[in-house]
TrEMBL record:
InterPro entries: Barstar-like_sf. This is Barstar (barnase inhibitor) domain-containing protein. It comes from Actinoplanes subglobosus.
């Protein structure tokens, strides 16, 4: 049996396969995941600080404030304190979040009255509101709060009139890549194309992404391909809409060849690689019926030194090498409590060498997810609440 070409391309409207090719130049961007954020400078203008923010400028507390949320009210024209009570969340639906924030300077505000202009350093969460963060909302001011400091609580920080530097144009996190070339392609592509790509294993199994996967552009060149007689290289004048990360390529190569050939093939990866391993496992998952109720699963905990390592390990414990059983707390809950992840709810999980995770998964701030770290005890508690009998060894 001949080995199928690696990528299948389908029409975005009809869903019908259009062609196959061996490589897609431009699909794997020359970036790594996660994208390291650019730290920015913000200024809270005319700010009345309270709580940890007040302590930071007084020198009575740390300058680091974890994540800061600036929530603006819908009704402009009156001071925040006069508009609605502190617990009125309906008035504060416009919110922007600044991550890993540190106070780097302050001075009295021109208006006086105990108010300050306070300089912060941090970075903005990309998926926030207001035209992608470029347009300041029509509000009279912002209520400030802090979370992510390991306490599990949201702490008031006071209020300010303006957050200068937060609402502006920024470079794209994933800038458009180069024009695409389909290498080793079946001939016959002409004109303007809008295609979805899918990954094909050597056994012919086709995996289609759940996220945006368009390739679009006009055919501008066609020529013989080095991949074999009868195949061509087709160059378009447009890019891949959402490229994959450069450090995903070698992981996807594992699934292209049929999947991991044994357990713990992810163990030597760093935290980012482990995240991408779980993503590849989810993408290439072939759903099977849940195993019978009462099944006992064994989790090899020797390499669970970080959050993403836990999901690599539990995926393999439930579904074998390269298996997936969630990649975050939401999907862990869905799979454990409701099934369809490979195990009938109410199963037993024997966690071997659990002390490794207990030592490494501790409270703090996670600079990969930019929020409070998920601890070993929290993972055990989540599993327990979802009916999993966890045996720690």
């Amino acid at each position: 049996m001949s080995i199928p070409l690696r990528w299948q391309l389908s029409d975005v409207v009809t869903g019908e396969p259009v062609t196959e090719c061996m490589e897609i130049d431009g699909l794997f961007a020359d970036r790594v995941f996660p994208v390291e954020p650019v730290h920015e400078r913000y200024t809270l203008l005319d700010c009345a600080p309270s709580g940890p923010l007040r302590a930071a400028i007084d020198g009575d507390g740390p300058a680091w404030l974890a994540n800061v949320v600036a929530a603006g009210a819908h009704v402009p024209g009156r001071p925040i304190a006069e508009r609605c009570p502190p617990d009125c969340y309906d008035c504060y639906r416009i919110g922007e979040e600044m991550l890993d924030v540190r106070v780097v300077g302050y001075r009295p505000a021109p208006g006086g009255a105990g108010r300050f202009d306070i300089d912060l350093e941090g970075h903005r969460r990309d998926e926030d509101h207001n035209a992608g963060g470029t347009v300041a909302p029509d509000v009279a001011g912002y209520r400030l709060s802090m979370w992510g400091d390991g306490t599990g609580a949201e702490t008031p920080l006071g209020e300010c009139r303006v957050v200068d530097g937060l609402f502006r144009e920024r470079p794209e996190v994933w800038p458009p890549g180069p024009p695409v070339t389909l290498r080793g392609c079946r001939p016959g592509l002409i004109g303007h194309l809008e295609l979805h790509w899918a990954h094909v294993r050597v056994d012919g199994t086709v995996h289609r992404p759940a996220w945006e996967s368009r390739i679009f552009g006009k055919v501008v060149a066609t020529g013989p391909s080095a991949f074999g007689d009868g195949l061509v290289d087709v160059t378009l004048d447009g890019p891949v809409s959402v490229p994959l990360a450069a450090n995903e390529r070698e992981i996807w190569d594992v699934w292209r060849a049929g999947g991991p050939d044994g357990p713990n093939r992810w163990a030597g990866l760093d935290r980012s690689g482990r995240y991408l391993w779980v993503r590849a496992a989810a993408f290439h998952r072939v759903p099977t019926p849940d195993r019978p109720a009462g099944t006992v699963y064994h989790l090899d905990g020797r390499h669970v030194t970080d959050y993403d390592g836990f999901f690599c390990a539990i995926g393999e414990a439930i579904n074998g090498p390269g298996g997936w059983f969630g990649g975050d707390l939401f999907w862990l809950h869905e799979n454990a409590a409701t099934g369809d992840g490979g195990a009938t709810p109410g199963f037993t999980l024997v966690w071997h060498d659990s002390e490794v995770a207990r030592t490494h998964l501790v409270a703090g701030y996670d600079r990969k997810s930019w929020q409070e770290a998920v601890t070993f005890d929290e993972l055990v508690a989540v599993l327990g609440r979802d009916g999993v009998r966890v045996e720690l060894r």
